[in-house]
Design brief:
Strand content: under 5%
Structural class: mainly alpha
Number of helices: 2
Helix content: over 70%
Number of strands: 0
Amino acid sequence: MGLSDNDVEKIKGIFTDRFLQTIAERVAQVLERKYETRLREQEHTIVELKEEIRDLRDTQDTILWTVDDQEQASRNLNVRDLAYPWTTVIIYIKRYRTFLKVLK
C-alpha cells in the first residue's frame, strides 16, 4: 500500500551507519504515512463526489417529476377550461327546465 520493500532497501542502502539507517527507516515511515494519508484523502474525495452525483441524480429525478406534474396539471386545466362552457350551458338548461316546470 505504501512504499515497497525494495524502495525501503534503497533508502537504507544509501546510509551505512546504523544511526543513519534508523533515520532512513523513519524517513521511509514518514513518507509511507504521507502516502497513505494522501490515498485516504483521495478515497474520501471519491466518496464525496459519488454522494454529490447521487444527490444530483435525486434532484434531477425530482425536477423531472415536478415537470411531469406541472404538465399534467396544465393538461387538466386545459380540459377543465374546455369543459367549463359546456357545464355552464348544462346548468342553465337545467335551471330553464326547472323554471318551465314552475310555470306550468
